[in-house]
Amino acid sequence: MRLPRRVPWAYVGELEQVCSWIYADEEDLGAKIPAINRLSAWKAMTPLPHALDSALAILAARVLDASCRDTPSTKTSLSLRQTYAAAIIRMVNGLVDPLQSGAYARSIAAIATQLGLPSWLVELRHAATHEDLPSLELLREACKESLSWLLHNYFHPTLNPSAPTSTSSLSLRPIAPLLNSYKLLMKTVAQDGSLRKHYQDRIDSVMRDIERWITEAKVSAELAGNPLGWGFDDNSAATRLDIKEKWALEMICNALLERGAIVPVSRRDCRAPTDPFLPTAASLALWTPLLAQLCETHAAFPSVFISRIISVLLDVLMGPDMDINIIELDSKSLHRSALYSEYLARWVTWAARTWTDESEHGIDLRREVILQVAPIFIPGHNCGPEAKILNELLQAVSVGSKDLKESVELLRSTAAAVPTQPWQTHDLVNMEERLQILMANEFQTSELQENGSTVRNDATRPGGVPATGWKLLDDHSNWAPCPIA
Known about the structure:
2% strand, two-stranded antiparallel sheet
């Protein structure tokens, strides 16, 4: 369960008052003193969100700047430049560092762009850290820009959570071009093995870019659910990370399931032997390196990959008119033919046999496949010819395990069609007889002694009101069939 978010203010009105002190009049530095005092008091009690900590450092620098203008000197100017620069560096680093996750590092400029942070602030931060200190005028302007950014990206979203924010509307770049590049490179290598050494660096580069895309997707998930992660719920940090990573992995799985990715476009390329129930050798050679890296880098990828495929298969069988939002590759739209479904089922078989779930839960992937497919085998449910694909999937997954085979056989036996009989008039008579039997058992006349009083239970309630239940209406009931309003 996600714990409540811990904040330093007693009620949101206190934060609103601090916001008014900071932004009511930028030139009124006297109004900034109460804001600094309030933020300092909060900081003494509890760690501040990074946005408020940055605002406090910038306000302190501006007040120090105003107090030193009457006695300008070279020493004072250097001290002010260092104070301003430290505030800018800490703000940019504090925004970017928590989002610097994944197997491969991303540039600060790329993360800042995704956050909507002005690029020149990132460049100024780099200059102040590794080069000569920027001029005092430029640092003053940077602090004004930083306060403006904090107003629109922290104070406004926090004080008005229902209002749309600029960060939540940032779009995630498509993954399709990266997958296309990877596929073309792997096809080239597959056609001429002597070129592998020449193309290996480019293949590795594309795979790193795919990992960076997953990191960007996790950032997008964070911005959509909790803009910039302003908060203190540290106990739920692992839970938030799992949710973000799962969302990012689902996005890349949706792209992989598009026809033209792990499912070939050509029907001829989709033809594979019935036994073993696996993808073709060409598909495995093409996509196994990427899938292996995703599985190695992300412990939850095997279960997410299998779950997404089974979700699509069940969606095809139970709701063929339904659609899912996925990223297109080579095809104009997701063509869900029986051949497409069968090929996806082959990938499930391969994944369940090849991978093991290394996540915290450590589930058995083959058993998980059976559990996820089980709802389709409800008694009397007719899936049509497409159900053959799921039967083949379950048989292939259960190979080598006696317990799994017994479970599959039990599922298949319960899915036998229930014979239907036409409704006849005497069925009402049978229902009436069963009702009378039930009522006789429940309301039979008996006298029970309870606390010295007699309790009488019969088919008639006190006051002559008949017991509730089914009742067969006769010709004297004045009932006539009519439409239900």
